[in-house]
Write a sequence for this structure.
């Protein structure tokens, strides 16, 4: 089996020689090749990559003329290595251990999986980044069915490789991971301990991570299929909207509590977020369009039902516990809002947006027809420029 390892390169000049050496040792005796996709990197990575390619014909380099981003760079490499039988994508910073590649490949060949992810383990980055990354992956799992520990280090067979390329290039998926998750193909993971970054700092700033996470979750929610999994996606989308609405409600509540009693502050804060969150649930959760009059009236009706439940629960907890301090008061408010969640979901799904829901692509018998694009030249040389992004 010919294995192509695709690695996007951006500010990784220091780690590339060790990456190539460790990968060669890990795949000794196998038919392998390494495709380095230099993503318009300014730090000298191009020269290092070219030197590695000159020393070993199994190492091939693609030079992108402008920065395309990690995931489009990966897709470029997958297209360039069309002749392989299995593909692995991984980072160049050595946090993804090359020694784990052989553990991913047997499950492609003998276990019926089209994709095998290196399940993320270990204290490989700061606690804050690990927590936010875990939250993102759990939300993405709810929307797509990906393994909960899936990242951008994974092996794929030809069917998944084709689905990933089509997902990113034709359907606009913001990452190869979400494209794999919505491929409908069998996916699994094996635990792999990631290493601490050996050199430099990640190019993914906190702002870039947040933007990528939001784009990925939004795209996954919009492009999910139909059937039993669709109901689970609706719940996941509803919870995502609800989390944002709850955060906004809590922020407004804290401000209003400076002047108002708890029950009144709760009602006013909920009024302020009712219509925006109802509109988001209509478009984002249920894929429905209703008239403005129905939206406003329905939002107020659902708010009234939810407020009755939450205000009642808040009053009960206040009478029982006193709620003498602010933390206890906030905890009671969260509990009261959680108690109204099921009622709101049922009212929105079965009443307000029932008539305005549109069938998903999956319910219509297939995915959306991909946008026509120019043919891709999949014949790649050691300095391949086929399929370069448009600057």
């Amino acid at each position: 089996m010919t294995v192509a390892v695709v690695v996007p390169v951006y500010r990784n000049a220091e780690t590339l020689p060790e990456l190539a050496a460790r990968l060669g040792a890990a795949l000794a005796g196998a038919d392998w090749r390494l495709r380095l996709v230099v993503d318009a990197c300014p730090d000298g990575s191009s020269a290092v990559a070219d030197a590695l390619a000159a020393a070993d014909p199994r190492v091939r380099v693609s030079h992108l003329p402008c920065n395309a981003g990690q995931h489009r760079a990966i897709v470029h490499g997958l297209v360039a290595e069309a002749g392989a039988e299995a593909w692995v994508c991984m980072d160049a910073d050595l946090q993804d251990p090359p020694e784990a590649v052989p553990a991913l490949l047997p499950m492609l060949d003998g276990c019926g999986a089209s994709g095998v992810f290196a399940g993320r383990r270990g204290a490989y980055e700061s606690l804050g980044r690990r927590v936010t990354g875990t939250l993102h992956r759990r939300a993405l799992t709810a929307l797509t069915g990906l393994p909960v520990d899936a990242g951008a280090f994974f092996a794929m067979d030809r069917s998944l490789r084709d689905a990933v390329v089509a997902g990113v290039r034709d359907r606009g998926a913001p990452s190869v991971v979400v494209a794999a998750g919505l491929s409908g193909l069998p996916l699994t993971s094996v635990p792999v301990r990631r290493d601490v970054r050996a050199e430099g700092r990640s190019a993914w700033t906190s702002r870039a991570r947040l933007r990528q996470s939001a784009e990925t979750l939004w795209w996954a929610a919009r492009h999910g299929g139909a059937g039993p999994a669709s109901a689970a996606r609706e719940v996941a989308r509803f919870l995502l909207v609800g989390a944002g609405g709850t955060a906004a409600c809590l922020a407004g509540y804290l401000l209003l509590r400076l002047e108002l009693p708890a029950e009144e502050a709760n009602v006013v804060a909920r009024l302020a977020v009712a219509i925006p969150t109802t509109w988001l649930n209509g478009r984002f959760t249920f894929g429905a369009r209703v008239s403005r009059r129905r939206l406003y009236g329905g939002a107020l009706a659902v708010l009234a039902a939810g407020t009755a439940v939450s205000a009642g629960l808040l009053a009960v907890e206040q009478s029982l516990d006193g709620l003498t301090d602010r933390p206890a008061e906030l905890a009671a408010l969260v509990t009261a809002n959680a108690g109204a969640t099921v009622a709101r979901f049922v009212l929105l799904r079965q009443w307000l947006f029932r008539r305005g829901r549109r069938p998903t692509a999956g319910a219509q018998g297939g995915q959306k027809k991909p946008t026509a694009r120019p043919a891709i030249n999949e014949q790649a040389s050691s300095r391949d420029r086929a399929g370069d992004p448009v600057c």
